[in-house]
Design goal:
It contains 15 helices and four strands. It has a two-stranded antiparallel sheet. A two-stranded antiparallel sheet has the order 3-4. It is globular and about 55 Å long.
Length: about 300
């Protein structure tokens, strides 16, 4: 990390996102991330303070598709944004400055309270590990360590101080289990995100022909979509987190998830890059290749 100086006064180093070619570069831009993210989000809002902030300040009920699209774009920028990653982190902190109130237990909360902000970020690591066992090739121990080191770098991009996040895997797991045991519960937002009667509006993005088609088939498609969302949300959540929140998961569901995983592992790796990777990731990967080729 390079220290930027103005005259003789040192300035705070600019956080640097993970490097091209790292674990996150292959993981975060891959379309399989769309299956993984709901589990992490549900773990986040199982914390009463985070749930209250989302319940009272988010537009996830009135604009779920736009909210999801913006969150996905932000995540892409943390990893692939280059110099723009740090600015995206600052933008998020500015956005969260006004998010405060009282949770369901009558306790005051603020979105930027270090413990709350760090937990939101921390959920990504165990979800990535667990989901990889189904959707890809399980990580080696070296890759698990590299992933955690890169996730810490993303945390710095988001403005999370090292003192607020465990700095090693060995320190992470006791911290993680402490949150599971002492703080998580099935909050009102968890119940909504895992409900099978969730009412979602028809997506209002994309070509007009597609929007017309979706409006026509939405009464049939919506129940299937909601059940599938619940299925992957609970299934790709680490079992200890699932148990801590109180979400049920059966052996038959586990078998179905493993069958789904086999299909995903067979299909996604052979897709062309334009179908396998999300737009921000595709552009960043092309730019990295050009830069690498120019340096030869």
């Amino acid at each position: 990390m390079k220290v930027v100086r103005s005259g003789s006064i040192p300035r705070t180093p600019e956080p640097v996102p993970p490097p091209p070619g790292g674990v996150l570069w292959s993981l975060v831009g891959d379309i399989r991330i769309l299956l993984t993210l709901p589990a992490a989000l549900t773990m986040q809002v199982a914390h009463p303070a985070v749930s209250a902030g989302v319940d009272e300040h988010s537009v996830f009920r009135t604009d779920p598709w736009g909210r999801g699209e913006r969150s996905l774009l932000s995540l892409q920028l943390w990893v692939y944004g280059g110099p723009g990653a740090a600015e995206e982190g600052r933008r998020l902190r500015r956005l969260h400055k006004v998010i405060q109130g009282t949770d369901a237990h009558g306790r005051k909360y603020h979105a930027l309270t270090p413990a709350h902000y760090a937990w939101v970020h921390a959920t990504g690591y165990p979800v990535f590990l667990h989901a990889q066992n189904y959707l890809g090739r399980p990580f080696t121990q070296a890759q698990e360590r590299q992933l955690y080191a890169e996730w810490l770098r993303v945390g710095r991009v988001l403005g999370i101080h090292d003192r607020d996040m465990p700095q090693t895997i060995e320190a992470f797991w006791p911290y993680y289990r402490g949150v599971l045991d002492g703080e998580l519960e099935k909050t009102v937002v968890v119940r909504e995100l895992t409900a099978t009667d969730l009412r979602l509006p028809v997506p209002d993005r994309g070509p007009a022909v597609l929007r017309t088609l979706l409006r026509t088939i939405w009464p049939v498609l919506l129940p299937l979509l909601v059940r599938f969302r619940r299925f992957v949300t609970i299934g790709l959540m680490p079992p200890d987190a699932r148990d801590a929140i109180g979400l049920e998961w059966s052996e038959s569901q586990e078998r179905r998830l493993r069958r789904l995983g086999r299909v995903v592992r067979a299909v996604v790796p052979v897709l062309p890059e334009r179908l396998r990777f999300l737009p921000v990731a595709r552009r960043a990967r092309r730019a990295a290749r050009r830069e690498r080729d120019a340096a030869r």
